[in-house]
Design a protein that fits this description.
Length: about 425
């Protein structure tokens, strides 16, 4: 079975946590003692229904305020697929949490309250999802029970969102009317919306095609660890371990190692369960090469005639995550790109982006907490990078404050020089 990573997003009180709780509950993915615990908690709080949101709202502050603050991850499996759900917060002050929670998602569920329609936060979450290059979006029009399951309400929201989405790059967009509280069109089809001819949310999650989303053309293996001989019995074993970031590898393939540029061939590929004849992203593997080369952590193994840019100059969209500082020209930070560390300096700003209106402010000279902008960076060592549009792994990085070792920014590479 393949794995689908999905993230939920929406405004405060749109029902994200309830939707995830309903998915887990109706797909029989929670234990009996968990159900008993949330039933007891719901009763003690005086809730009218069993509050399935309690399955994901784990922080005390979340339960007291009825909002999502932290990113909660939940796992469940159906006979067709494995799932990892990231329940990301909706409030603007937790934009950084949404960016980190959704950064690896294959699909994003954007919830809309049927009573409120598309609001500012809906547009912001949609933009962030497309900024992160999430290939599949599901617009879940929730709380249809509170508008009497009116088809006209759903169609009006659908038409408005399609018009808004023309300004974004959305490869795949699906609309589903539902009621997470009552389970309409979540796992089981709704008897209250016989006018809706599409599938349920779970059916869509099981059927959406994600195999072509990953880059299977550009071979990229950032070296994470060098496995050296540990005994005389294995004196000729020298492997280079890491997670494949793109492409397909086979024994006998000619490859190059960056930054040296030396070429060799793959002798064998070892996966978690032994030797394999083929490996592709995102598998974790160990490569054995035919020649003894100087390969270290942070190096990149790629095709001879298909290599990433080797550059010290980057232009990237950065989401700033620090509460205690701002990102300004001249700032010096540590940068981690794939498995490689370097130091970086901010050369200049292109613009700061208003993620609510998509307006660009070219006069901006700084980024503060939760703001996003386009920035030029210069690094002390060459990085082996692709654009984020081409490869989400080799096109992204994080910025770290060297004095506190705190991650202060996340970047998506737009251009390399």
């Amino acid at each position: 079975m393949d794995l689908l990573r999905l993230a939920t997003a929406g405004s405060v009180d749109d029902g994200k946590s309830t939707l995830i709780g309903r998915l887990l509950y109706d797909s029989k993915s929670i234990f009996e003692d968990q159900l008993e615990a949330i039933e007891a908690t719901s009763a003690s709080r005086g809730d009218e229904h069993v509050n399935l949101a309690l399955l994901t709202d784990g922080l005390r502050a979340e339960r007291e305020q009825g909002i999502t603050i932290d990113v909660a991850h939940r796992y469940f499996t159906t006979p067709r697929r494995k799932f990892i759900i990231a329940d990301t917060p909706g409030h603007i002050q937790y934009t950084r949490n949404m960016v980190t929670g959704a950064s690896t998602a294959d699909l994003s569920i954007i919830l809309i309250d049927a009573r409120k329609g598309i609001v500012e936060q809906s547009r912001r979450h949609s933009f962030i999802a497309t900024l992160l290059r999430i290939p599949h979006l599901v617009l879940a029009v929730n709380k249809m029970d509170l508008v009497d399951y009116d088809q006209g309400v759903f169609e009006a929201i659908r038409a408005e969102y399609i018009e808004f989405a023309k300004r974004l790059d959305v490869p795949d967009l699906t609309f589903i009317p539902m009621s997470a509280l009552h389970g309409d069109n979540v796992v089981d089809r709704s008897a209250n919306m016989d006018w809706y001819r599409g599938g349920t949310l779970l059916h869509h999650l099981e059927e959406v095609y994600i195999a072509s989303d990953r880059n299977m053309v550009d071979v990229r293996l950032p070296v994470q660890y060098v496995i050296r001989p540990q005994s005389t019995e294995h004196h000729d074993f020298r492997g280079y371990a890491g997670s494949i970031a793109g492409g397909v590898m086979k024994p006998g393939d000619e490859v190059a190692v960056l930054p040296s540029g030396f070429t060799t061939r793959i002798r064998s590929i070892i996966g978690p369960e032994g030797e394999v004849d083929e490996a592709s992203a995102p598998m974790a593997v160990t490569l054995l090469l035919e020649d003894e080369l100087d390969v270290s952590r942070g190096d990149m193994i790629c095709r001879v005639n298909n290599q990433p840019a080797v550059t010290q100059d980057l232009e990237a969209m950065i989401c700033w995550m620090s509460e205690s500082s701002e990102l300004r020209p001249g700032a010096k930070l540590a940068i981690k790109h794939t498995t490689r560390w370097a130091r970086a300096m901010v050369k200049d700003f292109r613009y700061r982006l208003d993620i609510n209106t998509l307006h660009r402010d070219p006069e901006a000279t700084s980024l503060s907490l939760n703001e996003i902008g386009r920035v030029r960076l210069r690094t002390t060592q060459p990085l082996f990078a692709d654009s984020y549009r081409r490869n989400r792994t080799t096109g992204s990085f994080i910025l770290v404050d060297e004095s506190t070792n705190v991650t202060v920014g996340a970047g998506m590479i737009r251009e390399t020089e």
